[in-house]
Amino acid sequence: GAVVSQHPSWVICKSGTSVKIECRSLDFQATTMFWYRQFPKQSLMLMATSNEGSKATYEQGVEKDKFLINHASLTLSTLTVTSAHPEDSSFYICSARDFPGYEQYFGPGTRLTVT
Amino acid sequence: AQSVTQLDSHVSVSEGTPVLLRCNYSSSYSPSLFWYVQHPNKGLQLLLKYTSAATLVKGINGFEAEFKKSETSFHLTKPSAHMSDAAEYFCVVSREYGNKLVFGAGTILRVKS
């Protein structure tokens, strides 16, 4: 149980385009989802927290207009990288938590390469 | 602010020998501490967690960790390494249990046959 999937697992896009990444909780309802970013050889950094039906809360330094997060249902959250630039290339990982649980269950990640 | 320092970026052990992955934390509050493991192309999996109960925490797959407040450490150990333990391990601290996870840089464990 407690499986989280991400799609796509790997995406290449051209500079200036937008790309959407999906995060799904497959066997539980996720009241809260988290989005992380991981640069090569660095640790994961929390980008934003989203609660179902509410606006996401972004961490300091994360551009909310660039990284659009939608948590429209209890099993799906999406991260859209708008007007992507090469510096947005990274590994994006989502996690999901049910209520009233506290453990976060992580997806396998999405590698984004912007050319 | 919370932070974690994983003291080794790579650890190499022989199969059947003990594993020690070191982690020091910094927190202004009584922290919650976690160890996660990440196998290639798999999601992060929780190994164990400390939430101010027993200082010696037992996790899955024979791993355990000891919370030492005086040393601000939360080292991960296993008595006997198995080939399947080869993966990347992350030490994580949280002020709010379940929220705001702060990750260490990770330690890659290699197990030699």
Topology, please?
The complex is a heterodimer of chains A (115) and B (113).
Chain A: E1 4-7, E2 10-13, E3 19-25, E4 32-38, E5 44-51, E6 57-58, E7 67-73, E8 76-81, E9 90-97, E10 105-106, E11 110-114
Chain B: E1 3-6, E2 10-14, E3 19-21, E4 23-26, E5 32-38, E6 45-50, E7 56-58, E8 64-68, E9 73-78, E10 87-94, E11 102-103, E12 107-112
- Total strands of chain B: the figure is 12
Quantity of strands of chain A, as a count: 11
Evaluate the radius of gyration of chain B: 13 Å
Strand content of chain B: over 45%
Strand content of chain A: over 45%
Bin the helical content of chain B.
under 10%
Largest sheet of chain A: 7 strands, mixed
Number of helices of chain A: 0
Fold and architecture overview:
Chain A has strands at 4-7, 10-13, 19-25, 32-38, 44-51, 57-58, 67-73, 76-81, 90-97, 105-106, 110-114. By secondary structure, chain A is mostly beta strands. Chain A is globular and about 40 Å long. Chain A is 0% helix and 52% strand. In chain A, the strands form two sheets. In chain A, strands 2, 4, 5, 6, 9, 10 and 11 form a seven-stranded mixed beta sheet that branches. In chain A, a hairpin with a 5-residue loop joins strand 4 (32-38) and strand 5. Chain A is built from no helices and eleven strands. Chain B has 113 residues and is mainly beta. Chain B is built from no helices and twelve strands. Chain B has strands at residues 3-6, 10-14, 19-21, 23-26, 32-38, 45-50, 56-58, 64-68, 73-78, 87-94, 102-103, 107-112. In chain B, strand 7 (56-58) and strand 8 form a beta hairpin. The chains are: A mainly beta (115), B mainly beta (113).
